[in-house]
TrEMBL record, chain B:
CDD domains: STAS_anti-anti-sigma_factors (cd07043). Belongs to the anti-sigma-factor antagonist family. PANTHER family: ANTI-SIGMA FACTOR ANTAGONIST TM_1081-RELATED (PTHR33495:SF2), ANTI-SIGMA FACTOR ANTAGONIST TM_1081-RELATED-RELATED (PTHR33495). This is Anti-sigma factor antagonist. Residues 16-112 form the STAS domain. GO terms for molecular function: anti-sigma factor antagonist activity. Coiled coil: none annotated. PROSITE patterns: STAS.
């Protein structure tokens, strides 16, 4: 170091240094060929064409835990391999080698005397004589323990990831099944038979992951009256589902206590307001609630309903007309301690149908760029074209309409149709 | 779909939130957050200027009701300004036109 720090080294000194370096380098090389063979960081092995081991280096003997005397002239290459390795050697390695004269990077397992095994990568080449006849096989053996461990780790991780994915998939399926069951519990399985009345309903779920907040029901109140309702709670998911459940059972219970539409909605308003006020999470719903009273004498159905913040129902008449049944000014249910609800009444004759819907229908986005809304006018035109048809047929047509919106329909939508059958309805004849 | 954009300014009467774009389930939390961070004092008037509002669904309605609840809690007023026709139609259906003071524009809404 002192010498190199010198700014002006004598030229003779530098030359002498070079000579000394070269000598040391040569000495290393001279010493190296044999030493390199014996102690190389890989195994060397030469065999006769029948596999008998003629030469083997120290490194490989060390890996095997064998002495040179036990091996040279006494063992064949395949004796060093595990059973599986032997088999692979016979069926693949040896045939390929004799065909191609060389083969490289074949993974095999060596047996150790202690009973262990070492994964290795083996390359072999046939040495030929001057006339081209095969003389011997030269083989190098690389320790592949690290590499094998790495591969095994990769495989293990891939299996773990696969397992995690499979489990997540199963969890997701289970969750969706649970959600579907919950969703079903929020809606009636079947609508009850109302004498002299036909009903039909449809529920469109926008997303299987987000419990919807639309609801409807039809149920008996007393011997002659039936109650019905349809609505939409704010929000999505479990909280909305809890609100839907509370709403549905409150309306049913309220109807039994006092079937008057305004008093049923007023009860619901009080319940929701008390439940959610001060929770920091305002929860409310829109709802149409009403009663049906069939008149067996005239074959008509008297409908009394009240609306709290819900879009107006539509009445489809047998004569081919359709009109909104306006209920303006009814307030959302649950936002204020007292709320005003708007009532409306109508009488349905044979062939007339009352349609209730949630705003998923009218708020569906239309047009190429999904910027338009389907809207009230289009709905009324569509329903006018279907006026005079029985409830199930109207619902069927609307279901087709909902499907036609495609991804423009991003909200849940509930539909409920209540109608009086015409005299030529086969079921009507059976009833009379 | 246009994103929701909210800018806040102070008028003599209190804070004015200019809401533009689409107020729906996907982005309503942005308005909620802005309302939570708002300083609103007793006697002030919170004005929601909806001139640029292109769409408002039921989640948007919930946010309006939450804003109303916040104003009530500190005894402040709340008013809506420049409500677009389609949103006004929704407000009418749900009866909220009766419980919100609605002004034609933010100028009228911020008059003392």
């Amino acid at each position: 170091m002192m010498c190199r720090a010198d700014q002006h080294p004598e030229p003779q000194d530098a030359d002498a240094e070079k000579v000394a370096d070269a000598a040391a380098f040569a000495a290393l090389l001279e010493d190296g060929a044999e030493d390199l063979y014996e102690n190389a960081p890989c195994g060397y092995l030469s065999t006769l064409m029948d596999g008998t081991i003629a030469k083997i280096n120290t490194t490989l003997l060390h890996w095997l835990g064998l002495e040179r005397d036990e091996v040279v002239g006494r063992m064949r290459f395949t004796d060093l391999l595990t059973v599986g390795g032997k088999l692979y050697h016979e069926t693949h390695f040896a045939p390929l080698l004799s065909m191609q004269s060389e083969i490289s990077g074949i993974a095999l397992d060596l047996k150790q005397t202690g009973g262990g095994r070492i994964p290795v990568l083996v390359s072999s080449a046939v040495k030929h004589g001057t006339t081209g006849q095969p003389l011997m096989i030269r083989t190098t053996v690389f320790d592949a323990r690290d590499r094998r461990a790495y591969e095994e780790e990769l495989l293990r991780r891939r299996e773990a990831a696969e397992e995690a994915r499979r489990r997540a998939e199963a969890d997701r399926t289970r969750l969706q099944e649970a959600l579907a069951v919950l969703q079903q519990s929020l809606l009636p399985d079947t609508l009850p038979e109302v004498p002299g009345v036909r009903t039909a309903a449809h529920y469109h779920t926008a997303s299987p992951d987000r419990l919807g907040g639309d609801f409807y029901d039809v149920f008996a109140i007393d011997g002659k009256r039936f109650g019905f309702f349809l609505g939409d709670v704010c929000g999505k998911g479990p909280q909305a589902a809890a609100l839907t459940s509370l709403t549905r059972y409150t309306l049913r219970a309220a109807a039994l206590h006092d079937p008057d539409p305004v008093s049923a909605l007023t009860t619901l308003n009080r319940v929701l307001h008390e439940r959610y006020t001060g929770s920091g999470d305002p929860r409310y719903c829109t709802a149409v609630y009403g009663t049906l009273e069939p008149d067996p004498g005239t074959g008509t159905l008297a409908v009394h309903l009240a609306s709290g913040g819900h879009p107006p129902a539509v009445v489809l008449r047998a004569d081919g007309t359709a009109d909104f049944l306006p209920t303006p000014g009814g307030l959302l249910v649950g936002i204020l301690p007292t709320a005003r609800f708007t009532t409306a009444t109508t009488v349905l004759g044979p062939g007339d149908t009352l349609l209730l819907y949630t705003d998923g229908l009218t708020e569906a986005r239309t047009g190429q760029d999904r910027t338009g809304l389907y809207g009230d006018e289009a709905l009324l035109a569509f329903l006018t074209a279907h006026a005079g048809r029985p409830p199930h047929s109207v619902i069927e047509a609307l279901t087709g309409l909902l499907d036609s919106f495609g991804d423009g329909l991003d909200d849940d939508t509930a539909l409920l149709a209540i109608g009086v059958p015409t005299a030529d309805d086969p079921r009507t004849r059976n009833e009379r | 779909m246009s994103p929701l954009n909210i800018t806040t300014r102070d008028a003599g009467t209190g804070p004015v939130l200019e809401i533009s774009g689409e107020l729906d389930y996907a982005n309503v939390s942005a308005l909620q957050k802005r309302l939570d961070g708002l300083t609103l004092r007793q006697g002030q008037r919170l004005v929601l200027d909806m001139r640029g509002l292109e769409f408002c669904d039921s989640s948007g309605i919930t946010a309006l009701l939450a804003a109303r609840g916040r104003a009530e809690a500190v005894q402040a007023e709340i008013a809506l300004a420049a409500v677009p026709a389609n949103t006004l139609r929704v407000l009418r259906i749900v009866g909220l036109d009766q419980i919100f003071t609605i002004h034609p524009d933010s100028e009228t809404a911020t008059r003392p």
